[in-house]
Amino acid sequence: MIEHDNDRMARGEPCTFIYEAGDRRLPVVTFHCTHLEAPAPATDTVVLRRSPVYPVQELRSFQFAGDPAGHGVPAH
After folding, report:
1. pTM for the whole structure
2. For the range 18-22, what are the long-range contacts, defined as Cβ-Cβ under 8 Å and sequence gap of 24 or more?
């Protein structure tokens, strides 16, 4: 589950919290996202890319249905 807090984003704090689907008590990861402008999608959208180093996919951005604000994941 992905949670985004606009108030924390405005304060420069970690604003994105990603939780394990079966346990939403503690986030798996938190970060301060990068604001992205994009057309509002009809459904929640997640952009992944294959990692050039590890055999996993990396989260690059996400956007909630009907919201013109996208959220980019900062580079390491």
Report:
1. 0.84
2. 18/59
